[in-house]
Amino acid sequence: MNFLVSSGRNRGPRFGLAVLLAVNLLILICPGCARQMPQKSEGQVPVLPPGQEIVVWEMKQPHFPGSRPYEEEVQRVCEQFQQKTGIRVKLVFVSRWELPDALLKAREESKLPDVLFSGEFPCLTGLERDLAGILDAGQYQETALAAWTRGGRIMGIPSAILWFGIAARKDVLNSQQGEPGDFRTDPSTLNGLLRSLGVLPTSEAFMQIATHELSGRHRAPREIASFVSWIKMNVSESEQEFCLQRFKRGDIQGIYGVTPYIFKWLRISSEPGSSGEPVLVPLIFEKGDTGFGFTVPGYLILSGAEPKLKASAELGKLLAQNYGRWGARALGLIPARIEDLPIFTLESGFTREERSHLLKILDLTGIPLSPQDAGVEGVAADAGLDDLFTRYKCLEELAGVLSSYFSGNLIDDGLAEEIAHALEGNTSR
């Protein structure tokens, strides 16, 4: 799933100026409030029959200096929920690439989790429960909630808005004429930057960018091939290890399609305030459009009947808020909960200009798609577990095709056909 928004389009405000003004006022009145806000359940947690437990599947996260380990934060939330409610919680950590196989096996054995974290690039399983009567929509950013809403049904609990763009060296920004903000939105300037960029072609972020237009529409295989060919013709580095090293040395001026994880690693690897410190700028596309990519990780509730459904949803709300807060502090994600926006403002590590630019893009455009969009041409939009499994297999095949192409083992003439085979999950290689 991928959401790309152009800095030049206007779909009407989604964050709302009133919300942003209220957040700024809160920060001025109480700068320490962001750290002091407690997590609390919105509703009454029902009592479960003896012997029942809530099974939670979480995803492992890297640890960054200056932030608490994610696993400890999740364990703390589950322990507090268990102490408060008396409901036993079984916590299991899985990696993102283990998820499809693990879910298929769990379904066969009738051991599906009650609460499931979607990961950074969500896709519905076909088994999630509608939370429209349980979730208080007014507690969440409209932009984030819209990503999990379909036909009035709320299919997941949004946790944070995850972005991806270009990480450019600060010295490139400082070398531009005019106001610094011009650099971030001027297509001609960004086009000039493009030829000195690196790219990570087998990353899921890049594959999502390559398979979608700015509108969110899926590209056909020939359109994907055209975009990938344009990127290869323009960028100067496409090997991940060399790309990261060359950015640090200053041999390349930026990296195309970075996630918050890579951006954070680049930032902590550079001297604060140095010329090599990365700044976040929009993606540039072959027709000169610019924009950021966005996804909305969330929590799916797979529990069946009451009272376990309600109890699982209450725990899911706490876990979603925990990820949003942790993500804001550790990675610069935008929390989905309105009350947690001050954490992004005070503790994300972004400058005021960077924060304003991200929030402005979101306020102008919103997110046009929902997680049921499987993100791969040919995979059903109303995806079930089998379709989710197919999606991951397709992405593995697509990564192989892109690796061959950028390494020179595949030429332009055969690229579109190989991409088509990969997205069908039936590559001929």
> How far apart, in Å, are the first and last alpha carbons?
26 Å
Structural class: alpha+beta
> How is the quaternary structure best described?
single chain
Largest sheet: 8 strands, mixed
Overall description:
The protein is α+β, with helices and mostly antiparallel strands. It has helices at residues 17-29, 33-36, 70-85, 99-108, 142-146, 170-174, 180-185, 187-194, 204-210, 221-234, 240-249, 260-268, 308-331, 341-347, 352-365, 385-406, 412-423, and strands spanning 3-6, 53-59, 88-94, 115-117, 149-150, 153-154, 157-158, 160-169, 197-199, 254-258, 278-281, 283-284, 290-295, 298-301, 334-335. It folds into 2 domains: 40-162 and 296-362, 3-Layer(aba) Sandwich (D-Maltodextrin-Binding Protein, domain 2), CATH 3.40.190; 165-294 and 375-423, 3-Layer(aba) Sandwich (D-Maltodextrin-Binding Protein, domain 2). It contains 17 helices and 15 strands. Helix 1 (17-29) crosses helix 14 (341-347) and helix 3 (70-85) packs antiparallel against helix 13.
Annotation keywords:
429 residues, alpha+beta, D-Maltodextrin-Binding Protein, domain 2, 2 domains, globular
Could you give the topology of this structure?
Blueprint: E1 3-6, H1 17-29, H2 33-36, E2 53-59, H3 70-85, E3 88-94, H4 99-108, E4 115-117, H5 142-146, E5 149-150, E6 153-154, E7 157-158, E8 160-169, H6 170-174, H7 180-185, H8 187-194, E9 197-199, H9 204-210, H10 221-234, H11 240-249, E10 254-258, H12 260-268, E11 278-281, E12 283-284, E13 290-295, E14 298-301, H13 308-331, E15 334-335, H14 341-347, H15 352-365, H16 385-406, H17 412-423
Parallel strand pairs: 2-3, 2-4, 9-10
Antiparallel strand pairs: 1-13, 4-14, 5-6, 7-14, 8-10, 8-11, 8-13, 8-15, 12-13
Helix pairs in contact: 1-14, 3-13, 4-16, 10-17, 16-17
